[in-house]
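User: Quick sanity check before I run a bigger batch. Here is a single chain. Can you write out its predicted 3D structure?
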Amino acid sequence: MLILAVSHNIHLTKKERYALADGETVEVIGSNIPVWFYNFNTSEPAAEIFCKYIIHNAKGESYISAIKDGYEINIPQLPENYMEPPTISDEEWRKMSLPEQQEWYAKHPVPPTGKDLLDLTDGGSSHMRFQHEVMSKWRKYRVKHIHQAEINDIEKLKQSLV
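Assistant: Done. Predicted structure follows.
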């Protein structure tokens, strides 16, 4: 099978992160690194490509699709059947060993949503990461597209440049 893995790296200002979390659409420049895989061969070393990203936080299915100058993304939403994990008191949490805490998180995953883009003080983490997979056909090949998107605060990028 032919596989195209694309790593998307997008950095947003606080204003853009909060607008997206509030359901607005943002348009920014980001980068991606596409790598092809076929029969244990890859197209590495891969080139970093800068392009336009139109990012939505709209009800409906999450997607990442190619457009003329880049990509259009609808970030993940909470599933309709999602139930909040049970609450645990601080006392109970502190009594758990690290493996028990890790097991608790594994049993109670929290799906990524636009609220993750908020600052810590507002209940987020100022970033989100998610993956999207889709199958297509190109000539005689079945192609699996794997998109891994990471959206971060632009301050993280600025700090790395110092």
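Residues 2-83+113-160 form one domain.

User: Great, the batch can go ahead then.
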